[in-house]
Amino acid sequence: MSDPTSQPNSQKDWNALAERVARHVDNYLNGLEAVARGDGGVHTVPLLLLEVSQVILAGAQLGASADVILPDNWEPEVGPDPDLDAIRQGLSERLDALDEYVEVFDPYKDTEPTSYRLSDDLVDVASDLVHGLRHYQQERPLEALWWWQYSYFNHWGNHAGAALRALHAFVANARLNVATEAATTA
């Protein structure tokens, strides 16, 4: 197994990183679609926590890598992005009362909390990831990596991190409350 934090120094290394990230992206998109359909049942939130955690690993690999620079400093067109509103709506229905949460957008620049929706964050991440995946599927791994890395720093990394904190808080609170209730009844 290669070291995910090693710096790519050849096209082969970039291709290997693109393949790893593409697998994470594909798993995230498939998991999100399944949860939006209702396949998660009572495990919806823990499954989303797992999916977001795994895609954040891909983002961390991109963040730890050297900057991806396109040879012509130009991104080829991939066509229109798919409509993900059905997934957004499905997630909103599954998440119901815990869909809305509060987050500080940038802990170094912002001081005021901002309202977010998990369903929006999860689909915003998916939208950025699917765009890069389309480059990858068109056999342009360097363009895919460039897009994933750029959008990780610029957009989806923040939304994934915020969603992860909200999902973690919900799961942790649910589990810790059960532990507290069990301890007080013993």
TrEMBL record:
Pfam families: DUF5063. InterPro entries: DUF5063 (IPR032025), DUF5063_sf (IPR038312). It comes from the Bacteria. This is DUF5063 domain-containing protein. It comes from Actinomadura decatromicini. The lineage of its organism: Bacteria, Bacillati, Actinomycetota, Actinomycetes, Streptosporangiales.
